[in-house]
Amino acid sequence: MRLPISCIALIIALLACNRQKENASNESVPESSNGWEYADSVRNEIQSAKIPTDTLRLIDFGSEDDSQRIQKAIDHVYELGGGTILIPSGIYYTGPIVLKSKINLYLEEGAELKFIAKPEIYPLAYNWFNGIPCMNYSSMIYAKDASDIQISGKGIIDGQGNDPVWKSMKFHERKDWELLKELENTNVKPINRKFGNGHSIRPDLITFLECSRINISGVSIKNAPFWVIHPILCKHVTIKNCLISSHGYDQIGIGLESSENILVDSTKFQFVDDGVKILSGRVKIPNNRASKNIVIQNSIFENVLYSAVIISSQTQAGANHIFLSDLKIDTSETALRIFANAGLKGKLHEIFLKNIQANHITGSFLLSNINNSSNLSNSSPLLYNIHLDKINAENCGRAFLLNGHSKNLIYNVNVRDSKFSTFKGSFVKNLQNMSFSNVRENEKNYSGTNTVGNIQIPKIHLEHNEDDILNSNNIKFNDLPKSVKNTLAANYPQIPVNNIDQMITQSNIIYNINLKLESSKELKLLVLADGKIMRSKSDITFDELPKAVISALQSYLKITPAPLMINEIKKIAFQDFAYFEIKGEYNRKLFAVGINNNGDIIEEKQKIITTYFSPNQIK
């Protein structure tokens, strides 16, 4: 007998109330402020850059090397008290640019700054890498201890991060990352943590360090070697009407680190790993502070690999009062990802979402986690007061995946007037006080309050019931929608269909289609009812790998005469991205590595083994 949803929720609540929370935090959780009124006050308090009205054209500074005359123009205008430097239409190949106070770098339509891919021309500069201060290659556009800076116009800023010089650094970056952590752990001063030439920590495209009143508007910014825009310890930053598009590794559109009073408005993000990343230092840093008072509104996130917005685990000083409104998210793993790190103890709270339209979320709309549980000696609440209002999520894996810890719960998640169209049920563990008002999931209504507490509930009331989701095997080809048939005909003509499975909710259909290739191989597709291919996966042989992939694998494994054993190779393709997943054994280690067509490592994992297995040996 299947109980009604309301009965299930009541049973869960009673179980949770009776459960002893011996290990959970006893410290009270502050009540939420009136969020959206507070957001209005943040918008009103953000200060704009104040730039003198004088304007000079770049052509007034000679015809020498572009790098020299751009920097010469900045220095000259700065000495005059500030103003606008107008860069006319044309392509300018430049090295590092140091911006100064009261400068507006204005790019006319057709103007393009291309940053030269020669690491040796970027001098050492103080920066933060993954939340740790160090001396590294200067960012391509860099400002420190400055105020009233503007980058504006209709031009393009291209970091040329896809150049092999920058991309190859990814292969060796882990070694320098471990060295940087060791230098920090042994209390070496940041000024003596020197990287740059001879090392492989990639620079950001644009960095503002301890600056205030920063405006970026109208420009297109693309192809960063590492992060695209990185304000650190900044106040009063406005990024508006921009296009941020960046392919590559570890691409963060905007990384807000220990910064406050931030407005991101009417900006489009494409092809980045994360659209906006909010963090506040990985280690204890003098003058560090929480990232707070952040408004992200009227913006679009397309083809984002991981998260439209992420509040990172690198939050030593915490993050609070974060407002996301009127956003469109199309194709991402999650809409909002929140990681609280018990080892850093930074508190994450007062997080508000409103008027979010999301589609093709492959994971969970909201994913929250408290990690580093071995450091949970502090019982103070870390993650609390999350509010969602007017969310419409379609073609979504899950609505929620909320994973607290028995020693530190997630507190107070409130959802109102929202609709989720999902393929899987939500997962909630170690959360106290989750309330719903007029929430619909796959045409089911839910309203009420559920105290989850310290018990694991893999299927709470948002899980599908048996009659909500129909898994059907061996669907006939003729039963497929015309849009799906057209996709198969256009992309895989005359390839026989081996098997079709489907998952159906009341508002979504997804097809798992296996195509029979030559030599008993299969091509597996995930196709939505509208014909969009979410993912393809096919088995291939070692000999079918591109030469660049084989070369990258050899470099990654540091090939010696030791036997290389390949267990499995799959080609995995998404709409705008493809890579090869290779699993095997080499030199007594299991490895799993993802490599794209260009030979770039995109994911890696190694594990020492003590037993031997016998897959196919590749000579």
Automatic annotation (TrEMBL):
Keywords: Glycosidase, Hydrolase. The keyword Ligase does not apply. One of its GO terms (biological process) is carbohydrate metabolic process. It holds the Pfam family Glyco_hydro_28. InterPro entries: GH28_Enzymes (IPR051801), Glyco_hydro_28 (IPR000743), Pectin_lyas_fold (IPR012334), Pectin_lyase_fold/virulence (IPR011050). SUPFAM superfamilies: BT0923-like (SSF160574), Pectin lyase-like (SSF51126). The keyword ATP-binding does not apply. One of its GO terms (molecular function) is polygalacturonase activity. Belongs to the glycosyl hydrolase 28 family. This is Glycoside hydrolase family 28 protein.
